[in-house]
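hey
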C-alpha cells in the first residue's frame, strides 16, 4: 500500500512540474511594443543563425564525414559567417539562405545559386498576432521563376525568430535567427 502511495505522490509531483513548465512566455511591455512597431512598419530582417534541415541518410553521411561546421550536426547547422537572411520591406520579400537537404525535382544547374534565393512581392501575405508567444505569425508564398516557396515565420518579442521554407523542389527546412529593423541604407 505504501508503494502505491509513493507512486501516486511521484506521479502528482511530475504532473505539477509539467504544468509549471508550460507557463506562458513572458515578455516585457517594451519588447511587445517594439515588436508591434517593427511589424507595423514592415521593414525588418531575420538573420538566420542556425539551419535545421530534415534529417536524412545523406545529411547523416555528411555529418559523419565531418563536413559540417564545428558544433553542427545533421539536424542543426551553424550558419555563422554566411549571408543568411529573410528580409521584408512592405510587401517585398527577399531571401538568401544556404540550403541543406535533398532536391525532389531537378532544377537548372548553377553552382553559384544552390541555396534558397528569392526576391519579389509576397503573395497571400498574412501577419497575424500569436497570443501564445505574444508575437506574430507571418505567412506568404513566393515564386522565383524556377521554384515556388511557402514561408511561415514566428516573430517573437525577444527578437528571436524561427521560420520554415517549404519548396516545390526540395525537402522542407527550418531556420532560427535574430529579428532586427531593416534599413535599405545597410546594403
Amino acid at each position: 500500500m505504501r508503494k502505491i502511495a509513493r507512486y501516486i505522490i511521484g506521479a502528482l509531483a511530475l504532473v505539477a512540474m509539467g504544468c509549471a513548465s508550460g507557463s506562458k512566455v513572458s515578455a516585457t511591455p517594451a519588447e511587445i511594443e517594439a515588436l508591434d512597431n517593427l511589424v507595423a512598419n514592415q521593414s525588418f530582417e531575420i538573420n538566420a543563425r542556425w539551419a535545421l534541415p530534415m534529417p536524412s541518410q545523406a545529411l547523416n553521411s555528411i555529418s559523419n564525414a565531418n563536413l559540417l561546421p564545428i558544433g553542427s550536426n545533421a539536424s542543426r547547422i551553424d550558419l555563422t559567417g554566411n549571408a543568411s537572411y529573410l528580409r521584408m520591406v512592405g510587401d517585398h520579400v527577399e531571401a538568401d539562405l544556404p540550403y541543406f537537404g535533398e532536391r525532389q525535382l531537378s532544377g537548372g544547374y548553377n553552382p553559384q545559386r544552390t541555396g534558397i534565393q528569392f526576391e519579389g512581392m509576397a503573395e497571400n501575405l498574412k501577419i497575424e498576432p500569436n497570443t501564445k508567444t505574444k508575437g506574430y505569425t507571418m505567412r506568404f508564398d513566393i515564386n522565383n521563376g524556377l521554384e515556388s516557396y511557402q514561408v511561415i515565420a514566428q516573430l517573437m518579442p525577444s527578437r528571436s525568430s524561427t521560420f520554415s521554407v517549404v519548396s516545390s523542389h526540395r525537402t522542407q527546412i527550418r531556420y532560427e535567427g535574430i529579428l532586427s529593423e531593416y534599413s535599405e541604407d545597410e546594403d
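The mean pLDDT is 85. The first strand starts at residue 43 and ends at 53.
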